[in-house]
User: Fold this.
Amino acid sequence: MSSPFGGPARTAPGLPNLPTPPTGWPVGSYATYEEAQRAVDHLADSDFPVRDVTIVGVDLMLVERVIGRLTWGRVLMSGAASGAWFGLFVGLLLSLFSGTEGGGFGPILVGLASGVVFGLVFAAVGYGASRGRRDFTSASQMVAGRYDVLCQPRNAEKARELLAKLAMGPAQQS
Assistant:
């Protein structure tokens, strides 16, 4: 089996290569991913065949958390910094392959300065083109309204029993 990029596929044996809806019976439903993960961890600790288990996020939402205000100063500083890193990398490569003894610092400084200039220009052009329509920075993540734990029918009843013991808490378990 091979991937669309020409190499061998990197999926675990038995898992589908294409996106497919999950199968199995619901054995638990949780408000947070951490709770669902804790439930599956409990099953694993109980020597349950967790290969039959799937965690499914239901009612998916894209949550964008605003981090801060975007200003010309921040845009230009960020552009200069990213340009400097790229320029430093290019300068180091040029110094490694230059014909001078020891490589010299000339190519490194030229790469660094060029990177800063190009980083500033590209950042300014990009931010100027937005015309103030997005003057903030943010971080996005996909979250679910709830997380269901599904199990293949052959072991679903045992999973329900183990998760019911987990829900009762350590004091009430036998």
Remarks:
- The chain has a mean pLDDT of 87.
- Helices lie at 33-45, 72-97, 106-130, 153-168.
